[in-house]
């Protein structure tokens, strides 16, 4: 038994959970082609959720600030990107891949820019006065979420908005009898690229070193003379921009967005950071992929259970590891 | 209403003022059917009674113990759906009312114990997130399991004959309903007083709870959890207890509201908008005083019913100006409430009741 545990630890420990999950699902589903489709969909969904959740997790880890208004960035990102894409729909409908890619790039960039600015505003105006006071943080960020949702309603209206996709991301890739939507591959690749970039920054640069040190012990970093509050604004803005990017990707994925989007996403994002352990991006990635895979597998195997599946997953993991799968060391 | 047993401590003028205000509210609600003789006002009064209890029970959590839960509407909904389903299945009898309420209470209690024991050990922030997730799952379930809950449409049902508007409580020699001060003594009146009295009993029970030694322990947990633990109180047990107590009261409030409305649906009981209303009421009224909960509920419910009308008028009056009518649109009233909410949390974390009671040194919000 001990030997088995050791072997599993050496192979990656909890990181193997998604693999185990996929293996179990393969047996249960039976048909390899549907399994591949579901797995790719789950991974793509997980990557988009990772984009949205990573900022929340880092902000909490670094400054002990939980932002209940985080999902507002996601919805704003989705709507800003959708507006840009709708404005450039002439570029999208053409055959030119260049123009389509440019429009998509502009949309995501606009969403991220909006996320940066909104994040800066949010941090300085809303959250700065209530550091170190969890109850008021929860209340104030909740209030900000209400206001943000109302602004979205006022600007974009209450009716669902359809999101045009660039032509080259439409359709599916067919390998044998397996069909994979192109957009899913794109979402997965983009998410992976962001994860690798984040990982490289956090583990390879001096700023990343400071952030990781700040997560572990804020006081110590401050005592050594670093301005951790500036660092924090930076992380907060980056997190908001990533959330907006995730929102933009999500808008392209579901192609029909409504102002209720933020509320739906918020629950998933919370479940992801709780499962992953607050404060670490590795944990967030793990949690996001787990949630994405479970959501897709259960949706196929037992559609009735799909709604509660994330909740059950969270309960199970919290009973096993009360502080998440891979929490940052505190 | 009796004051909580606070010994021989002298009460400050502010405290007396708050008590007077709440007594005045109670008196207004008691005579509401006679003072405001239109149907809409009676709706407002009944909603007020229920929300005072609901908000006060939430205050037990957030104000007295420092627990932030987003699942309070879930318990409210359990009670409402319990009564609704029982009345629809068993017909309009008192057995269904009692059985349904009890079923709601039992379900609420079970869920509260599970959530409490599982997650009250963790940080406040985790707890808030977990309750939010649980509440959203229940909301989705309620709209999906349409066979049991009527889905998005909810359940319309008949209440016991006593509460029907056509029921005559007292008849004169011509077999017409007796009028008292111009008010017909019919079933609607009986229903209102049923709501009023049940809510009064629940509110007094809660006042008794926070005035008891148990209430003192809860406050000590809020102020300094580590010290309360060190003195020898089992913090998790107390927290779980108060979470369950609040859940039971919320569930009963839900049952009462369902009987009054003769309808239960996701929008009237489970929706996230109601949770936000409750939060706003607690914060506006003042956390940590049940009196404040009553004041907050009165302010916000009246605002909900009448401020929207006012905003509509203002929007029409400014219709020619750019942008202003959009912001003043009655649908945007949550926007203003949100801003007021944020400002209140910044500048008056103690809320109305707290600011009046302790004008000099506003108590810092807990944690």
Give your account of this protein's structure.
The complex is a heterodimer of chains A (330) and B (367). Chain A is mainly alpha-helical and 330 residues long. Chain A has a single domain, classed as Orthogonal Bundle (ABC transporter involved in vitamin B12 uptake, BtuC), CATH 1.10.3470. Chain A contains 14 helices and 4 strands. The mean pLDDT of chain A is 83. By secondary structure, chain B is mostly helical. Chain B has a domain at 32-270. In chain B, strands 1-4 form a two-stranded antiparallel sheet. A two-stranded antiparallel ribbon of chain B has the order 2-3. The model of chain B is unreliable at 1-8 (pLDDT under 50). The A-B interface holds A 60, 66, 68, 126, 129-130, 133-136, 138-140, 142-144, 146-147, 149-151, 153-154, 263, 266-267, 270-271, 273-274, 307-308, 310-311, 314-315, 318-319, 322-323 and B 62, 66, 68, 118-119, 121-126, 128-130, 132-134, 136-137, 140-141, 144, 272, 276, 279, 283, 326-327, 329, 331-332, 334-335, 337-339, 341-342, 345-346, 349, 364-367.
Please describe the topology of this protein:
The complex is a heterodimer of chains A (330) and B (367).
Chain A (H helix, E strand, L loop, with lengths): L1 H10 L5 H13 L2 H32 L6 H18 L1 H5 L3 H31 L6 H23 L4 E2 L9 E4 L2 E4 H23 L1 H11 L1 H6 L4 H27 L1 E2 L3 H16 L4 H21 L4 H15 L10
Chain B lengths: L12 H18 L1 H4 L3 H24 L9 H19 L3 H26 L4 H21 L1 H4 L5 E2 L22 E2 L2 E2 L2 H25 L1 H11 L1 H7 L3 H27 L1 E2 L1 H5 L1 H14 L4 H28 L6 H5 L4 H15 L3 H7 L10
Antiparallel strand pairs in B: 1-4, 2-3
Helix pairs in contact in B: 1-14, 3-8, 3-11, 3-13, 3-14, 4-5, 4-11, 5-11, 8-11, 9-10, 13-14, 13-17, 14-17
